[in-house]
């Protein structure tokens, strides 16, 4: 392990310890802590959707549907299976199971969707979001439209922080791997990718499953912050909010996802005095972004610290070669 890796590891551990101390010391109000957890959950959602919409170049608009599956699956495990007994020990298992079930469900959407090209995925994921919401509203065993409750407050700042780091780590390593290069090639030119033996359909399905897995994780964390969920929490409005965060921060950018999720979540809270009118801000921001800056604030750019050393060296070499050739 190199010096930089050791420093990063120490900072990660210090951050985790700080989260625990801040939450237990009472330095921050319960409201600030809850907003901080919402920011972390939205970072996970934004990063996962950015894999599909940003890095792969497809357009999914039903991410809230996958979040709903993760929220309900984890709640059933903690409330119905374990009856809120041994909650802190069972909760990590419930989160992972929720992610796996969500990923498995997403395969049902991904398999037929990626047989065609174009806007077909957007239509299918939109329909999927509506189907999930309608099904949950009509299952009385899960509370129907009244919602599902009884979950303990198992989500805390420390485990949200931990899952944010896991998501960033996975996305970063995926994007800068050979697999990630194949995914980026699909965004640039799918026909050319096929010609150089990239199995584009398989790549699309795998990326979609990974994105759905982390959406399920975010849903599980969200359910155990709120301690109450209902189908309306995962309507099209929620999917729109996630889209706004992706395109605000910037497509194809890890730091952009973190920035977009943080700014938008805090902005909505600051606009709370406006009441229901604050929900108009999201769609308006999305329209303005698409007109003025389609790729977002950090679109197709990355924070230097998140780029592997080999990539930075290669990028500098390519720039030098370009300058030499032009001279």
Low-confidence segments, given as residue ranges, are 317-326
- N-to-C series of helices and strands: HHHHHEHHHHEHHHH
How many distinct folded domains?
1
Derived structural class:
mainly alpha
* Basic shape: globular
Number of helices: 13
Radius of gyration: 20 Å
Which class in CATH terms? Mainly Alpha
Portion in beta strands: under 5%
CATH architecture: Orthogonal Bundle
The major beta sheet can be summarized as: 2 strands, antiparallel
Structure notes:
This protein has 327 residues and is mainly alpha-helical. The chain has one domain: ABC transporter involved in vitamin B12 uptake, BtuC (Orthogonal Bundle). It contains 13 helices and 2 strands; from the N terminus they run H-H-H-H-H-E-H-H-H-H-E-H-H-H-H. Strands 1-2 form a two-stranded antiparallel ribbon. Helix 2 packs across helix 11 (254-270) and helix 4 packs antiparallel against helix 9 (200-226). It is globular, with a radius of gyration of 20 Å. The two termini are 40 Å apart. 40% of the residues are buried. Residues 317-326 have low confidence and may be disordered.
């Amino acid at each position: 392990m190199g010096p930089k890796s050791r420093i990063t590891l120490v900072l990660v551990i210090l951050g985790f310890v700080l989260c625990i101390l801040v939450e237990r010391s009472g330095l921050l109000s319960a409201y600030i802590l809850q907003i901080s957890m919402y920011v972390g959950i939205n970072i996970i959602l934004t990063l996962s959707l950015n894999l599909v919409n940003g890095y792969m170049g497809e357009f999914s608009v039903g991410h809230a549907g996958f979040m709903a599956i993760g929220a309900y699956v984890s709640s059933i495990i903690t409330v119905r299976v374990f009856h809120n007994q041994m909650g802190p020990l069972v909760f990590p298992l419930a989160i992972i199971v929720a992610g796996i079930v969500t990923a498995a469900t997403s395969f049902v959407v991904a398999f037929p969707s990626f047989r065609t090209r174009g806007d077909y995925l957007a239509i299918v994921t939109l329909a999927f979001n509506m189907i999930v919401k309608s099904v949950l509203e009509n299952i009385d065993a899960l509370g129907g439209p009244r919602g599902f409750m009884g979950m303990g407050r198992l989500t805390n700042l420390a485990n949200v922080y931990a899952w944010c780091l896991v998501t960033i780590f996975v996305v970063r390593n995926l994007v800068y791997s050979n697999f990630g290069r194949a995914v980026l090639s699909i965004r640039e030119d799918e026909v050319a990718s096929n010609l150089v033996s990239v199995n584009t359909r398989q790549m699309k399905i795998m990326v979609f499953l990974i994105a759905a897995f982390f959406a399920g994780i975010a849903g599980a964390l969200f359910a155990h912050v709120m301690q109450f969920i209902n189908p309306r929490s995962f309507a099209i409005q929620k999917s729109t909010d996630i889209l706004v965060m992706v395109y605000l921060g910037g497509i194809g950018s890890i730091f952009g996802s973190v920035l977009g999720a943080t700014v938008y979540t805090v902005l909505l809270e600051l606009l709370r005095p406006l009441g229901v009118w604050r929900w108009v801000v999201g769609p308006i921001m999305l329209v303005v972004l698409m007109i003025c800056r389609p790729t977002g604030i950090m679109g197709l750019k990355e924070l230097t610290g998140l780029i592997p050393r080999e990539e930075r060296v290669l990028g500098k070499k390519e720039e030098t070669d370009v300058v030499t050739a032009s001279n």
